[in-house]
Structures are given as C-alpha cells and as structure tokens.
Specification:
6-stranded mixed beta sheet; mainly beta
Length: 192
C-alpha cells in the first residue's frame, strides 16, 4: 500500500450462490442477535449453541456462513487468517454446525465477536438521515464515510455508535480473495 491509499469496505455476506448453506439456530441459549453485534466481550458463552442446516436445500460450506442470527459465523480457515493479519481484539466463540439429516457436525466453526470499536465515522461525508425521537436526534446512516487516519492498523472493526456493520481493510479483502475464502462480499466505503 503506497502512502496511505488504503481502501476500506463494509463486509457483507455473499449470498449470490444458491447452493451455499444457510443455517438456523433453534435455541440461542439466551443470546440474542444483538449480543454479538455490540462489540462487547461475552463472559458466559454456551458452547452447546447449535446451528442446523438442511443439506437437501443447500450443501456448499462457506467460510463466512449465512445464519438466521446475523452473526459473523466463520470457519477455522477464516479464523486462522484473521489471527494472522489482524491485531484487533476478536473473541472466538465455538459453536456447533450440524447437518439436520444425519446429525453430523461440521468441525471448526466459531462466531467471531469483533471487539475493536473505533471512533472513525466521518458524519459530514456520510450519507445519512436524521430521525427525531423524544428530543433525541438519531442518525440513520445509508453510506458510511470513515476517517482512515483513525483506523491505523486495524483490518476488521466496527464503528462506535453504529456497531452492527463490520468494516475491513483492503488487506483483509485481498487476503480473503487470494486464499479463496468463501462467503464474503465487499462494498467500498468513502475514506478521508
């Protein structure tokens, strides 16, 4: 990367392939979707948390696995890659991914809980609308713009105040594509 031309992307799930597994958690053991979207450390994780997929509907295993809770459910391969390229704080929470027809377990999947929440939003250059709620102004962001000097060496992170989407650097994107990691899609964000 030449002198600070690093690009950043919103990380999306690539759902273009009809045969990619989508898995469902029937019993989330008290963990709601948002528990893993806030960038907070989870203390009492339950490793029996299980996601099921039906191989008759789809059978391609992706490294970023689509699931009904909207969590960043990843393979061992993607976890290894994240550990190599990124110094961000990430908590890896083991889960079971089970074939609902024969009850076989797909090994090595975990939910990556991204704990690096950076104050990098450039509101002025973002595309947003403002909603007034009981004397409070809530910003709804359609397109994010980030201050890249505030990101420095992070390759996967969340934005303070808007913790649901995940953002990644060009290094993450290039490495993922080079290593043939499946299930990730990228939307470039404006950087200033």
């Amino acid at each position: 990367m030449v002198g600070g031309h690093m690009k950043y992307y919103k990380l999306l799930l690539d759902d273009s392939n009809q045969n990619d597994i989508v898995c469902f958690c029937k019993d989330n053991k008290g963990f709601e979707s948002y528990h893993l979207q806030e960038g907070k450390f989870i203390k009492n994780w339950n490793e029996d948390l299980t996601f099921y997929f039906n191989p008759e509907e789809a059978s391609d295993e992706t490294d970023y696995l689509a699931n009904n809770l909207g969590w960043f459910l990843i393979s061992n391969k993607l976890k290894t890659l994240l550990k190599e390229i990124d110094k961000s704080e990430i908590q890896y929470l083991p889960v079971r991914v089970v074939n609902s027809k024969d009850n076989s377990i797909k090994k090595g999947y975990s939910v990556a809980n991204i704990l690096s929440v950076l104050d990098v939003l450039n509101l002025e250059h973002s595309d947003y609308s403002v909603i007034e709620l009981d004397d409070e102004r809530v910003y709804s962001i359609r397109k994010y713009a980030i201050n890249k000097n505030a990101v420095s060496n992070y390759h996967i992170f969340k934005i303070k105040g808007y913790e649901i989407p995940m953002f990644v650097s060009e290094i993450y994107k290039d490495t993922v594509l080079k290593q043939g990691i499946s299930g990730c899609d990228f939307l470039e964000v404006k950087t200033l």
